[in-house]
């Protein structure tokens, strides 16, 4: 079943892609086999992260960029990551409405992803979906996230090219600086350039860039757009292309991917291990659930973690017949 699904995905069949995404989002065990099969086929597309504070105009920008890319005959997959933020509810609906006119085209794929349950794994799932789209043959895989938390930052770090969307009087520049987004941004887009304060924002940005860009070979361009009027789109598309050419010609694209490998293996292991021990943890706490709250609070978490770890290790050695 997974084998057939993989070959249909490699053929670019949208229905198979949709099904696979659900498999990935639910973290079903089969998704690992699927991803292993797809992995050798990924790595041809350009992964573009678009980040910025809520309402900066990321979706409007992506909308405009997609039209430009399609005019150049390039296919685009868009993943709108919706963190459990208080802003996302309405915005996501807005995205759907605005992007509906794009959905008739076979060379465009749009999907929103959110945190399912509270156990996280969003960045792992997102990375898998990106890889899936890449393997399916999309020339560009665009990930839109609100630049707030660690998992968004993790997602951005797996992109080839990161564009930070700012807007005048957004007051989000310092926040982005603090969150570490400034350092990983390859392009700066000042959107809503029809509003006053563009020059001031540009000045502040240039000052901050002096601090963060030391030793960088790529000089991040600062571009201006009015996304709602589709103004400035061509320059952003060119900037994204230029950055890709820079990565390829300097060997940095491979370098980046290699340095991410260890991190990714560690994250996959962490996810796998957590999955494995969770039932043991739940059981251990359940046994104590009949105790009054005070007793539950007395449980020493360090000791309990140690007991569970040893129990898990013992179980494994017995399984291998070494016990
Ligand atoms: N004046 C002006 N408004 C814009 C521009 N671009 C986007 N907007 C408006 O800004 C609002 C937010 O735009 P979105 O594209 O949804 O912004 P977003 O960053 O995707 O928002 P979230 O996904 O909620 O974080 C909408 O009302 C847009 O119409 C622009 O260039 N100029
Ligand atoms: Mg949006």
Automatic annotation (TrEMBL):
Top-level class of the enzyme under EC nomenclature: transferase
Keyword GTP-binding: yes
E.C. code: 2.7.-.-
Pfam families tied to this protein: MeaB
GO molecular function: kinase activity
Entry keyword annotation includes rRNA processing: no
Entries under CDD domains matching the protein: MMAA-like
UniProtKB keywords: Chaperone, GTP-binding, Hydrolase, Kinase, Nucleotide-binding, Transferase
Family matches, as NCBIfam families: lao
Record family assignment: Belongs to the SIMIBI class G3E GTPase family. ArgK/MeaB subfamily.
The protein's name in its UniProt record: LAO/AO transport system kinase
Lineage: Bacteria, Bacillati, Bacillota, Bacilli, Bacillales
